Amino acid sequence: MNILRRGRLTIEPDEDVMRFTSSMEADKRIFDADIEVDKAHVVMLKEQSIIAEEDCSAILRGLDIIQKEGITALDASYEDVHIALEAKLIGIAGEDTGGRMHSGRSRNDEVAACIRLALREELINLMEEVSDLVMTLVNNATKHHETIMPGYTHTQHAQPTTLAHHLLAHASAFLRDLSRIRGAYWRTNMNPLGAAAFASTGFPLNRRRTAELLGFDAVMENSMDAVGTRDFMIEAIGTFSNLMTNLGRLAEELILWSSSEFDFIELDDRYSSTSSIMPQKKNPDIAELMRAKTGTVHGALMSVLTICKALPYSYNRDLQEATPHLWRAADAVRASTRMATGMVSTMKIKKENMKRASSEGFMTATELADTIVRKTNTPFRTAHHIVGAIAKTGKTPTLSDLDELASDIIKEKLSDKGLTEKDVREALEPKANIKKRTVTGGPAPKETKRQIKVIKKILAVHQKEINVIRKNLDRAKEKLDRATTSQ
Ligand code: ARG
Fold it and tell me: Looking at ligand 1, which residue's alpha carbon is closest to its atom 11?
């Protein structure tokens, strides 16, 4: 007889109802976490003299067997992994022993703890993956401080820049994503255990001890909040969404740049597909899927936000429906990050084509206007007027062209005010344009080299933090291992 339903309920749900209710499929993601949570809880129960030493060791031995056999050995007719696992344990150790594991606990604090453990693993792995992506962009940028390319606004040629500057723009965005994920980790890695159903328990539990054994950084203060909230999940998917938006923009550019119209890069064969009918095709399918997965992750965020909206406190079964969206989003964002790293590190860069494109579209117009301002003390708006009028003619301006227009517009020749042919020529030279942009954050090689140094420094701080987190988690694992083997 079903250990959960046998007391209060008499009629069994039919298969359709069971399938509707069960979380077994998604619970695959928290099976290992559930074993750890069970072990930590049971060790703490024994230490607090809530259960006897022999019961503790028998339960731990049973949990080891269940862990080895895996989730597939559990009775799938139960509604979730927690109760199926407990039923299995009772089958192994007997109810007089196995039936004591759930003292002072509810599936509500249990599942919250499991999700937090499994999610923190995703978050720390993602931190590593994003850090790899930033490093890959930086390494690529190192080779392209002098690689001139068009910079765009409105997808129109705007001003010349360098590939290093462009790649570092993406790197800067991913660096912020990294720190957002770190923030989400901090609010995820907290202990809800001990909250029980929501009102805690009369058993003298030691919540700090389970936190210690599971590597949680803190105990959740309010037991109703501990079981009722999924805001950590929303925050995590929020950071995934932001990261996916940034990845989607990178994907879009890789797609555009590999088109015949741009022809700036060629993606590696590993990250390309071909057509079943058009033999010549080399398609950027991986980048396209990366762009599409942005929708998957944003959809997950909307789902979880909407599921949690207006839920009365504390636990409601609605929360179960949120969890699979989290895993779907985590899978999509982690895989997309790895694909981005792979594409960026293997793509072939067509420097010559970038350079050629940089001489089209009069991208040096701003520098020409600025030069007029600097050399002739003309107000910028007036210089903008003169150069705009030149751009309209479609020809590369000479000093006399400028003088002619200036005579019309300001009734003065710019050459009379100090502008020389050499000034005009230099202003029209993309390379010279870039060299001048030494302002903090600009594309001048000197400046992009400085930006790389800063990014590397920030990255090193993150890497250190990741190492500290991993060390703390390893230490907690050892503690739990020691506590369970000493039984
Ligand atoms: N499978 C459930 C979930 O994911 C576990 C908690 C069930 N709690 C309950 N009161 N029915 O949320």
Answer: 317
Distance from the CA of 320 to the center of ligand 1, in angstroms?
6
What would the pLDDT profile of 129-176 be if each residue is shown by its tens digit? 999 999 999 999 999 999 999 999 999 999 999 999 999 999 999 999
Residue 131 is among the residues annotated as catalytic for this protein: no
Active site residue 273: no
Atom of ligand 1 nearest to the CA of 111: 5
Asked whether 168 and 141 are in contact (CB, 8 A), the reply is yes
**Dihedral sign computed on CA atoms, order 393, 398, 400, 403:** positive
Please tell me the pTM assigned to this model.
0.96
Distance CA 214, CA 188 (A): 13
The atom number, within ligand 1, closest to the CA of 315 reads: 10
From start to end of 313-433, where are the E strands? 348-349
H or E stretch at 449: helix 445-485
By CB atoms closer than 10 A (0-12, 13-18, 19+), residue 108 is buried
Q: What are phi and psi of 273, to 5 degrees?
A: -125, 175
Which structure tokens are listed for 62?
Answer: 């049973």
CA–CA distance, 427 with 406 (Å, rounded to integer): 17
Assign 348 to helix, strand or coil: strand
Supply the residue whose CA is at minimum distance from atom 10 of ligand 1: 108
